[in-house]
Every structure is written in structure tokens, then in C-alpha cells.
Amino acid sequence: MLVKICGIQDVENAKVSAESGADLLGMVFVPQRRRKISVDGAKLITSAVKDAECPSTKIVGLFADQPIEEVNQYVESCKLDMVQLCGSESVEYCRSVSAEIIKVIQIPTTTSESSDLSFIYDLIKPYAESGYHITLDSLVPGYQGGTGHSFDWDIAASISKSGHSFLLAGGLTPDNVTNAIKRVNPLGVDVSTGVETNGIKDPQKISSFIQNARRLS
């Protein structure tokens, strides 16, 4: 079970996440996002994680509909292992990014829209066939992830049973992640808001989330 802790903004929580067993650490580079991090801050986090005894933890940069040149510049300067694309980026766009890709597919939270599985499969298919990792997150108008809202896990379970591999995001917490994994059987889980207290990453919640996500392993 892959575990991604997203929205990391400081060295302390990056190290707690990595040392607790997180596979992926996400840093936000999207303008005007609450958790956006500076280049200098990102460099400090990358160095701290790579210098710690956590060589398997990968650093992920989050972007949304930004110029490819800008994304690739961040990849190089911040030594990112992966890029998570949260906007409407095409497969052609993904091919020009100089790092391993996670593409976010947003699932509507309304039953009538999310129940159309063929529509969701059509969204996933071109990226999956191109070898990119997939994250399923809830669609909240005006936001590109990190909302803390979940979508219907029965929909996610159906997608999983159809043979699609993905990370599950949206509304996960230390209290519900074990149940989510039982119901959905995803490749991994991705959390940000669910391990925060008053909008700040909480080391205890991070450790509990990772422990509970691995409980079924």
C-alpha cells in the first residue's frame, strides 16, 4: 500500500512523514494555493529527506495547468522525483514533463454524474495506457484537489474491480483510511487536509494515518 502525504511545507513534517514510512511526499507549486511552497523551502525539504535514512521516499511536486518549461525548471532545481498534475493537462503535455507522472482524475461528488462509470473510464484510459500513475480525487468546482472532500467510494471500488490501478484521495483521515482501503482496494492513498489540525500538518495524525493505512498489509 503506497502512502502519500501531501501539502508538506516544512522540514519537520517531511522528516516525520518519511521516517514513519511515507512512500511519497507532495509539495504544492500551484500559484494562489494555501499550501504553496517556495523554491528555497522545497530545496530544504528535498535535501533533508534525501539526507535522512529514508532513501525510498520520493518527492512529488504538484502543478496545475502551468507552462511545461516552468514545471521542468522546478523538477530540476528542487530535485523532484515525480510530478503530480492536477489540472486539465493532456497526454501530450505529460510526455514533455521531465519526471515520472501522477495524473489526477477528478470524480464528481454528485451521484448522477459520478455514476457514469464509462465517462470516468474514458478520462482514465489515455493516461493509464501511456503508463502514467493515476490519482482519483473528488471534483469540487473552483478547486484542484486538497479540499478534504470525498467522493463515493463505491464508485472507486468499481473502478478498482475493473482492473484500474490508482491512488485514492479526498476526505481521507487516520480514522477512515483503513475502511477506505478495505472497500476500495486502491494501489495507494493520498492525504493532506486529513492530517492537519487547524490547517497545519499534525505529526501525530501523519504517523497514525500511515500506521492505519498499513494495517491491512
List the helices and strands and how they pair.
Elements lengths: L1 E4 L5 H9 L4 E5 L10 H13 L6 E6 L4 H10 L4 E4 L5 H5 L4 E9 L2 H4 L2 H13 L3 E7 L13 H9 L5 E3 L7 H8 L3 E4 L4 E2 L2 E2 L1 H11 L4
Parallel strand pairs: 1-2, 1-8, 2-3, 3-4, 4-5, 5-6, 6-7, 7-8
Antiparallel strand pairs: 9-10
Describe the 3D structure.
The structure is a single chain. The chain has a single domain, classed as Aldolase class I (TIM Barrel, Alpha-Beta Barrel), CATH 3.20.20. Helix 1 runs parallel beside helix 2 and helix 1 runs parallel beside helix 9. The chain contains 9 helices and 10 strands. It is an alpha/beta fold. The model has no long low-confidence stretch (mean pLDDT 92). Strand 7, helix 8 and strand 8 form a beta-alpha-beta unit. 38% of the residues lie in helices and 21% in strands.
List the helices and strands in order: EHEHEHEHEHHEHEHEEEH
Distance between the termini: 7 Å
CATH class category: Alpha Beta
Strands ordered across the widest β-sheet? 1-2-3-4-5-6-7-8
CATH-assigned homologous superfamily:
Aldolase class I
Helix content bin: 25-40%
Give me the Rg, rounded: 16 Å
- Give the class from helix and strand content and strand pairing: alpha/beta
Rounded mean pLDDT is: 92
Number of strands: 10
In one word, what is the shape?
globular
CATH architecture level-2 label? Alpha-Beta Barrel
**Low-confidence parts:** none
Largest sheet: 8 strands, parallel, barrel
Instruction: Give the number of helices.
Output: 9
What is the number of domains?
A: 1
Strand content: 15-25%
